[in-house]
Amino acid sequence: MGDLAVLPVDLCSRYAKDKGLDGIKSGADLVALPGMRRSRLAIGIHDKSPASTWLVKHGMEAQAKLYPMLSPDPDAYPGQLIDQELAQGKIDAAIVWGPIAGYFAKRVTGLELVVVPLRSEPGVKFDYAVAMGVRYGEREWKETIDKLIVQNKAAITGILREYRVPLLDEQGEPLN
Hints:
It is a single chain. This protein is α/β, with parallel strands linked by helices. The protein is 35% helix and 14% strand. The chain has a five-stranded mixed β-sheet with strand order 3-2-4-1-5, sandwiched between helices. The longest helix is centred in the C-terminal third of the chain and has 13 residues, at 139-151. The two termini are 25 Å apart.
């Protein structure tokens, strides 16, 4: 398959600007907060996600406010719920998948949300490649998709950037 080196995306932390977390540029910055400040944080996460593993690894599981990954209510999208609670100040930060983080951070009104890509680390994988696929044995269709990806790489990248999806290069470094 023709690959798009710019498609891997991170799990991201995001927080409201001017609410006490300014200066957080990485997961290490969040972990390095003074003990009392760190212990008072409420961090929204989806249960059973890399975010929960990361919080446990760094002794911050008590700060987790869990949200279901899926909802039976079609009007209740989990990413939107986190952003509403973040915007309302019910949580201080959220750690969610990059496409969700970027999309909702851009759409929250009345509050600037900062999106911070979190790096994978031993035992916690945060970045995942986004892929397109076809059924096994459909070689002609696969070749058509590969060709379209290559021909439309700039447009695909533009759409991802418009939705503020965090992008990584082939070495896992954030693209600006």
